[in-house]
## 1
Amino acid sequence: MDLPPLTILLAAPRGFCAGVVRAIDIVERALALYGAPVYVRHEIVHNKYVVDDLKAKGAVFVDELDEIPDGDRPVVFSAHGVPKAVPAEATRRALFQIDATCPLVTKVHMEASRHHAEGLRIILIGHRGHPEVIGTMGQLPEGAVTLIETVAEAEALTVSDPDKLAYVTQTTLSVDDTRDVIAALQRRFPAIRGPYKEDICYATTNRQEAVKAIAPKIDLLLVVGAPNSSNSKRLVEVGLNSGGARALLVQRAADLDWSALAGLRRIGLTAGASAPEVLVNEIVEAFRPHYDVTVEKVTLRQENVSFKLPRGLREASTAA
């Protein structure tokens, strides 16, 4: 029986960004240098496959530092960043701490701290409850940062001194939605200061632009990523807002509902910044028993960004 033809447009860039690669490398390097267990506060990145793989190698994931016994075992802080209170507590307990915060998130922390030191009130554009937002707000005293998510919240915002404001953003937001929120803030508060270079990271921007390039050409967009991954969820939204008929977020091939995937001719496939390429390949292979699959790579641009490991790990690796 002949299978119906299906073209899969494989968007690029997709998948792991430099910050995710660095964070995973940090945990694996710590395991190689110091052995198991290596404790990790929260998911190192938002992907179950990655977390389970690191668990199998000896990483132990905890929600808070009080779950870690006293001793000299390493504790790694996730790529999303942490409030200042977390490393302070780790220092108080003399824990061996390793910071895997993405350097682009650290950039936002430094911006917020600099603006606060200059006497400005900080407006943070981001999603309530996301670990990155919690970490950024936790860089400053309670009440120093006002969080907004939408244009409506920007329009309703009241401040005591409109001439002393600055904004920063979560790094994994929708570029288009965030642009609208910033425009509303700038219209209402012309003196508001922003970052020298936008806070939404290069990987988030590139993956969204790649989706925009293929969305009008496909029957369905599949985004490989976790349900708690902000950048992956934004890719679904961007696909729908850019002319895509349907868009779905899936973690693994086993999650595909084949009853809803009949009659397709062209689909787009991408992955959030914390989803490994092995899961993309798994999705492609899962379609082959159902369709005569042709894969076309659609590359918007090349990425060559990399981030160094923390100095302590680099020096320990050299000495080992």
## 2
Amino acid sequence: MSGALAEARGASRRFGSFTAVRAVDLTVGKGEVVGLLGANGAGKTTLIRMLLGLLTPSDGAVRLLGAVPSRASRRRVGYVPQTLGLYAGLTVAENWRFSAGAFGDRGAPVPGGIAGWRNELAGRLPLGTQRQVAFALALSHRPDLLVLDEPTSGVGPLGRARLWDEIRRAAERGAGVLVTTHNMEEAEQCDRLVVMAAGAVMARGTVAQIIGGRTVARVRCPDWNRAFTILDASGVPVAVHGRDLRAAAPADEVSALLAREGIAAAVEVVPAGLEEAFVAMVAGPQGA
């Protein structure tokens, strides 16, 4: 295996007859933000747990910081699980002291970003605030690798922007970052994406590479509400963008469907967005 900070080669994980992760290849290098993009149940969390050594692959192999995952290699990782990993019955300051002590820095002061809650019980804080605290703890020892499982779930727009600023700063300092998300706006902030569905990798690359040459039909018409209803009832994937519709179907097919219902519409082919490309991949034969 290479010198990547985290790497999977043909990694699979089965639970009885159910295969949660199927022959996944993945690498995370220094200074890059790699996004695992997929819906709930795609296998993202299971893959992360294998990379961290919390689960053993059924097939294939994983490496963490160049070696088989171990307690020693995990000390160089900052990890925020979906469950956050905070001790609900301890205050923020007590959580901080415990985390700092575990990484050999017992005297580290509570950072300013979370000091305002230092005397609050972690379990009584709003979810968004808990995530900010968990993120600060994950960064406390300046890890070589940052692993974040849906880090901004439940966080408001301003808090989300701040967390992503921290993610980017960590990468600029040389840390590798692996982040799971199903939020397309967040996915677009990653350097590379690995798109997963049903435990398998559907696509990988930059946002532009993921989208590729995919297109959609943009529909403009006065009665866009009725047009949406017609296309949706016909089984055409369609979404509202402002007062335009974007349909994942050939433009001539969309025009014909609307014309049969007496709707005059301007229909043109435009490049797809990331979310539309994602939906097309997941809804295709491989993602079925």
